[in-house]
Structure formats: structure tokens, C-alpha cells
Design brief:
With about 775 residues, this protein is an alpha+beta fold. About 35% of the residues lie in helices and about 20% in strands. The strands form eight sheets. A six-stranded antiparallel beta barrel has the order 9-11-15-14-13-16. The structure holds zinc ion.
């Protein structure tokens, strides 16, 4: 009997079915050990030995039980570094190998099997061809984990000291935040230039009138897309009227910069002779894109389906685990021999041989190292469409995209014909370009957008007639903000993204509130800007794309076996920790919290105020700080103004009184980013901040009667991440919460006793 261990329970059943009676399959539900949650967890004085701690004792216990009576342990975790490390941790914890990966338990055999698709053939084939644990892959995974831990754990406390408590710095994430911050600053300092286009609608037959139209500011949008945009211009061949664009003056590129200039051009051309000067037809080919890698899948799903990268990966994982697509974490563009043959066979039968090239198309991966996942993302069965697999919703849409892209990658290019006509008027030249698809090729399957536009037949020397002249005002646009798609593209271009890291990077930078999304686009927060500035000034390497790309390359070399992981980390860590100590002394606390100037004057000394980043967001501080301690909230209210509110009738009828300190002083009302709160009078020296609490009768009025426990006690109203909820009086020991329903009027009427009882309790 062999015990096979996979990562996800969803896979276990299918694989057991494919492997037959001699195998039983269990799942580890991901990693079973990890670095400790608190503490460095890495022994920097002894070869960076990680202090792994068991995170899933129950799972391990189950696996130990399952191992009884088994003669071979088969590690079948995912086919990448992460999967290799998971397998090794399991084998070590089950005492089948030692920590160096050596097979030490002679009573139990050890096999590592990998498959990149969960099909009967692939799984059986993998089981018949086991190998040993690849310690190079394991080391590459460990090295990444340890590097990230060292940087995060050592750098974050410095940010707490110098900027704000609770901040954290990450290795690759900080570079991603920097890209977004730099782009925002480029946009802030961008000066838009005005320019004008002139479009002439031209008839091939004489016309009596010319219409002149101006369009102001036609494009203020900053929408950008990595995909080609569809644009089919309807052209009615019965009315021979074609829009030509002014392109040249005296044989040179021409663009008007003002309305006056475009007016001048119009007056010069409107009454002149318009003569066709050149007619050109050219054929071109439009080639299909390679099948998807992780990065292009995430980009295209974002652009075409509007999926965030995390969503794309979740759906792709489902499809993989259901045996419908190959492994979704890959930077390979390669398709297996069998896959190519299957695609070609399907395409010939379904669309005809004329769409299929004589020889298969081979795509080379950009990645310099042969990565451990071996194929691009493709369907396991090309002939099965989403419908025949019974897919719906997101899964249907993503599967369709993956399948069509992979199929198209083995098809002939589309053949396009462009048709260019140039019309000369005096010194000026106008041009129109038509485009036609002569042969659809791969477009038959994968709808890349081509704007088709027919031009009528025109001959050199022929006179044509302007019917309408349209001047349009434009402004040069700053570089677009990053979207998920364009950020992933940039990370890949810079060599700092890997299939397993794109989605986590995008998640982390938002979760840590270094960036926010506005529509599809990332904007840095104040914190993101301040932290980036500090890192750029004092830890240039950490936020340098080239340096980070080199680190990623080093990790790839560890995976290849051409670099030793301890040496690699040591090279980095020695200079990093020396620099850390040095810079810690240099950085002044106030240096990076200034965000800008303000028009307000200091309430204490009358000097100018500056905008600063504080614990609860922006506030105004006297520019003379620390000599003068004057400060205000962003709306110009001083601390005293806020504190005054406590005395108002409205406040007293809504909230419980201020909490008191042990020595009987009142807490003070302060304003933060998330509204008002009670602060210890010695705050922020004494870190005691408490939420405002509603009066019991106010709670009933707003949220209805509190639910009661079995022994008649009231549930308490609490503030959570997702709003208010009722919590058991012994919460959090008793984990019993009730979602808030909208206040019912009947609830409010029967307030009575419970309210009084609670009021008494609260006043104690
Ligand atoms: Zn002042």
C-alpha cells in the first residue's frame, strides 16, 4: 500500500480514483509547518537555520495514522518550489527523511511524483515515474521565505520608530509600491500640452458647401488598455465620404497647437484644390499570441473579463483541480507534443485544414531559467468547450479564454490589407487608412480586435472635395496610472515578478494600505508615499527594481542548483544589516512625515502650518515644531474645538461619558482618520485610545432591542471590521455573535428594563 499526499482535499478523491487500489490519497491542506508568527525565526548566526513550527498538528496526526501499514510515502504536492517544500516538510515531520532531505527511514519507501494536469493519463504516468525530492527547489523556496522574513522583520520596526507604529516593509512589495508612487509623481508634475487635429470628410464628387466644426476637449479620459481596442467605423459606400486626417505640412509631420493655428489652416485649405497624391495597398500579417502564462492570464482576464488577479487565480485553481486545465502557476509558453497534436487535430476537424499551419508553432519562454512548471496554461482536452464541461459563470468565462487562446496559438496568422490614400492641398497633406481582413486565420477562434474600414477606390491625380472640416482639441496625457494588468506587466518586464508572486503582491500592497484603487487604477496613499521616500533615501537597494530582479535571478539559480542558498542570503544580509544599524541612527523622526504646505496659520504662534502624516492620517502641524506644538485637524479645527463638542447637548444625548483614567482624569475627545475617539489625556505617550460608546437607549433606538443570552443577559454592541454586530457578553471568550438587522420599531418600543439595567452597569 502506498500513501499519496496532495495539497488540496478537492484533488485527493480524483487522484485516488485514477491510481487504483494500491494507493490511498490524503491531503495536507497546504503547508504543515512555517516560520513562527512572532520573532525572527531565523538563526542568522548559524547558516540562517529556519525555526519551523508545526502549524497543522491535527493534519499531521492524521497523516501519521494513515502512514501505518504503508510501505511507500508518495509526495504529490504541486509541481513548483512551494509544492516541493511542502512535500519535504511532510516527509521530515513524518520522520521519513532528515532535515537535509536524506531518506533515512528504511522501513518506508519515499517517492516524489509531479504532474501538471490532473488527468488519468498524466497521474498514472507520474506514479510510474517517481523521482527524489529536489532539494534545490526546496532551498529556493526556503531562501525566498527567509529573505522576505529578514527584510520584513528587520525593516518594519524602523518604520514604526520613524513614521508610525504598525507599518511594515516587504521585499518585492516595496518595489511595487514605489512604481505606483513614482508614476503618481510623474503625473503630478506633468504639464499637458494642447494640440489640435483636423479631420476632413471628403467626397469623391463635387459638393457645394463646406461645414466647419470645432470639438473641444474630446478626450479627457485616461483609460488605457493593454488589449487592442475594437473600433469598427461604419462606412456607407453609397455616400462616398471619407474622413481624412491632416498629417503633414511641406512634407513634415504637422500638428496645430491652438485654435488660432487650426483656423489658419482651415482658411488656407477650404477653397484650394484637393488632389489625390498617393494610393498604396499593403498586406500584413497579424500573429496569434502565445498560450497563457500566469502573468498574461492575469492581465488578459483583468482587461477582458474585469477579474482581479486573486479572483483569476482562484478560478484557475478550481479548473486545475477539476482536471480541466494544466497547472496555473507557470512562466512557460511551451506546449507538450501531445497537446500540440491534439490542438491541431481538433482545429482541422472543426475549422478546416486551411487554418492550421504546416508545422506546429513553438513558443520560447522569456524566462532565462527552465522553471519547474513545464507547460503554458491550456485545457487538458482541447475538444471540450466550457458548455460540454458543464461550466458556468466565472469558470465558464475563464475556461473559454484559456481554451481559445491556446487553440489560436497553433493557428495561422490573419492576413490584413491596409489601403492608404494621401490627398494634397497646397502645402498640406491629409491621409486616410483603410483596413480589411483578407484571411481571418486565428481570429476565427480568438477575437483580437481589428478595426476594419473600407476606403473607396481612388486614383492618383483625381480631384476630391472637402465636405466637412472638423477641428478637435486634445491635450497630451500623462502616463496612465497602473492597473492590476499593467502593474503585472511592468513587474514581469522588470524581472521582479514570478508566477507565484503576482497575486500576493497586489493583495499585500492594498491590504497594508500603501495603495488604493480608484476604479481600476492604483493610487498611492500618504503612507505609501512617505514609506517609499524613506526607503528610497536610506535603503535604495530594497526598492531598486534592478537589485530586486537580481535577487529573483539568484533564487532561480538556487533552484537550478548553480547557487548555494546560505551563501546567497549571507551576501545580502551582511550588508543589509550593517546598513540598517547605520541608517537607524541617521534618520530623523520628523524627516518623512511632511506631506505638504498648508494655508492655515498656527493657532498658538501664528506661523505657517504644514500637512503631516500622523497616526490617524493627515493633520496640520506648526512649521516650528518641535519648538511650537500647535496643531489642527485637516478641516481647520483645533483639538480644543473637537473637545468642545463633548459639552454639547447632542453629544450628551448620544454617547456615554468620557472614560476616566485610574487617577480620575477624563479621557479627551480626539479626531482621527476614522472619526472621533477617546484618548488618554497623556496620549500619545500613553497608548490608550478607546471607541466612543453609544448610550443604551440610543443603541435600542438605532439597532433595536439587544438579543439576550439563555441566562437573560444582554448582548453587547461591538464595532467590527465589517460594521457593528451583537456580541455575547462574554465575547471574545464565548465566540457568539449576531449580525445586526435594521432597527425594528417594535424593538424600540419595548426597550424598558433591559435598557435601565444596562445603563446602571455602564455607569459603574
Ligand atoms: Zn506654532
Amino acid at each position: 500500500m502506498k500513501l499519496v499526499i496532495v495539497e488540496s482535499p478537492a484533488k485527493a478523491k480524483t487522484i485516488e480514483k485514477y491510481l487504483g487500489k494500491e494507493y490511498k490519497v490524503k491531503s495536507s491542506k497546504g503547508h504543515v509547518v512555517d516560520l513562527p508568527k512572532s520573532g525572527l525565526g531565523v538563526d542568522v548566526d548559524h547558516n540562517y537555520t529556519p525555526d519551523y513550527q508545526v502549524t497543522k498538528p491535527a493534519v499531521l496526526q492524521e497523516l501519521r495514522q494513515a502512514l501505518k501499514g504503508v510501505d511507500t510515502l508518495v509526495l504529490a504536492s504541486d509541481p513548483d518550489r512551494e509544492g516541493e517544500a511542502i512535500g519535504w516538510h511532510i516527509a521530515t515531520e513524518l520522520k521519513v527523511t532528515d532535515r537535509s532531505g536524506r531518506h533515512t527511514n528504511k522501513k518506508i519507501g519515499l517517492e516524489r511524483i509531479v504532474f501538471t494536469e490532473i488527468t488519468k493519463e498524466a497521474v498514472q504516468n507520474a506514479a510510474a515515474n517517481p523521482r527524489k525530492i529536489d532539494m534545490n527547489l526546496v532551498d529556493a523556496q526556503q531562501a525566498r521565505r527567509i529573505l522576505d522574513r529578514l527584510v520584513g522583520y528587520k525593516l518594519s520596526p524602523l518604520l514604526w520608530k520613524k513614521i508610525r507604529y504598525g507599518l511594515s516593509a516587504g521585499r518585492v512589495q516595496s518595489v511595487a509600491v514605489r512604481l505606483i508612487v513614482d508614476r503618481e509623481r510623474e503625473r503630478e508634475s506633468f504639464n499637458a500640452d494642447e494640440y489640435w487635429n483636423l479631420i476632413a470628410d471628403i467626397r469623391t464628387e463635387k459638393t457645394n458647401k463646406i461645414e466647419i466644426v470645432y470639438k473641444l476637449k474630446t478626450d479627457g479620459s485616461e483609460e488605457e488598455s493593454d488589449e487592442e481596442v475594437t473600433e469598427t467605423i461604419e462606412y456607407d459606400p453609397n455616400v462616398i465620404k471619407v474622413p481624412f486626417t491632416l498629417t503633414q505640412k511641406q512634407g513634415k509631420k504637422f500638428e496645430a497647437v491652438s485654435k488660432a493655428e487650426i483656423d489658419k489652416v482651415i482658411s488656407e485649405v477650404e477653397s484650394k484644390k484637393w488632389i489625390v497624391a498617393d494610393v498604396k495597398k499593403e498586406e500584413s500579417r497579424k500573429f496569434p499570441s502565445p498560450p497563457f502564462s500566469t502573468s498574461t492570464l492575469q492581465q488578459t482576464a483583468a482587461n477582458r473579463l474585469g477579474f482581479a488577479s486573486a479572483r483569476t487565480m482562484k478560478i484557475a485553481q478550481k479548473l486545475y483541480e477539476a482536471g480541466q486545465i494544466t497547472y496555473m502557476r507557470t512562466d512557460s509558453l511551451h506546449l507538450s507534443q501531445q497537446a500540440i497534436e491534439a490542438a491541431r487535430k481538433y482545429l482541422s476537424a472543426r475549422y478546416g485544414a486551411k487554418f492550421v499551419p504546416e508545422k506546429p508553432i513553438v513558443y520560447k519562454s522569456k524566462s532565462k531559467v527552465a522553471q519547474e512548471a513545464h507547460e503554458a496554461i491550456r485545457p487538458t482536452h482541447f475538444e471540450k468547450d466550457a458548455k460540454s464541461l458543464g461550466l458556468s459563470g466565472d469558470e465558464e468565462r475563464l475556461y473559454k479564454l484559456i481554451r481559445e487562446r491556446a487553440l489560436a496559438s497553433q493557428m495561422l496568422p490573419a492576413i490584413l490589407e491596409s489601403h492608404t490614400v494621401k490627398v494634397n492641398v497646397d502645402d498640406y497633406a491629409f491621409q486616410a487608412i483603410g483596413k480589411q481582413v483578407l484571411f481571418k486565420g486565428y481570429l476565427e477562434v480568438y477575437p483580437d480586435k481589428v478595426s476594419e474600414f473600407d476606403l473607396p477606390k481612388m486614383e492618383v491625380g483625381q480631384q476630391v472635395y472637402p465636405e466637412k472640416l472638423l477641428g478637435t482639441q486634445h491635450f497630451t496625457q500623462p502616463p496612465a496610472r497602473f492597473s492590476e494588468a499593467s502593474l503585472i506587466k511592468e513587474l514581469e518586464r522588470l524581472g521582479i515578478g514570478r508566477p507565484s508572486t503576482y497575486a500576493p503582491i497586489i493583495h499585500t500592497i492594498q491590504q497594508r494600505q500603501y495603495v488604493e484603487k480608484e476604479g481600476r487604477y492604483f493610487i498611492p496613499t500618504d503612507t505609501g508615499k512617505v514609506v517609499t521616500d524613506l526607503l528610497v533615501k536610506y535603503f535604495e537597494e530594497i526598492v531598486d527594481a534592478g537589485f530586486t530582479a537580481q535577487m529573483e535571478n539568484n533564487l532561480d539559480e538556487v533552484a537550478n542548483g548553480s547557487e548555494e542558498w546560505v551563501k546567497m542570503i549571507d551576501n545580502f544580509y551582511k550588508s543589509f544589516s550593517t546598513n540598517l544599524d547605520k541608517q537607524d541612527k541617521k534618520i530623523k523622526k520628523e524627516e518623512f512625515t511632511k506631506l505638504g504646505d498648508s494655508k492655515e496659520k498656527c493657532p498658538d504662534c501664528g506661523k505657517a502650518m504644514i500637512i503631516k502624516l500622523g497616526r490617524f492620517g493627515r493633520f496640520l502641524s506648526c512649521s516650528d515644531f518641535p519648538e511650537c506644538k500647535g496643531m489642527m485637524s485637516m478641516d481647520g479645527k483645533t483639538d480644543e474645538d473637537v473637545q468642545e463638542q463633548v459639552k454639547t447637548k447632542e453629544f450628551k444625548e448620544t454617547y456615554l461619558d468620557a472614560p476616566k483614567t485610574e487617577d480620575g482624569r477624563d479621557f479627551l475627545l480626539k479626531r482621527g482618520k476614522f472619526g472621533e475617539f477617546w484618548a488618554h489625556p497623556d496620549y500619545p505617550k500613553v497608548k490608550d485610545a478607546r471607541p466612543l460608546e453609544l448610550l443604551p437607549e440610543k443603541i435600542v433606538e438605532l439597532y433595536g432591542e439587544p438579543p439576550k443570552t439563555e441566562d437573560g443577559r444582554d448582548y453587547a454592541l461591538k464595532n467590527g471590521k465589517f460594521g457593528k454586530f451583537w456580541a455575547h457578553p462574554d465575547y471574545p471568550e464565548v465566540k457568539d455573535i449576531i449580525k445586526i438587522k435594521t432597527a425594528s420599531k417594535s424593538g424600540a418600543k419595548t426597550s424598558g428594563k433591559a435598557t435601565k439595567k444596562r445603563a446602571k452597569k455602564a455607569s459603574k
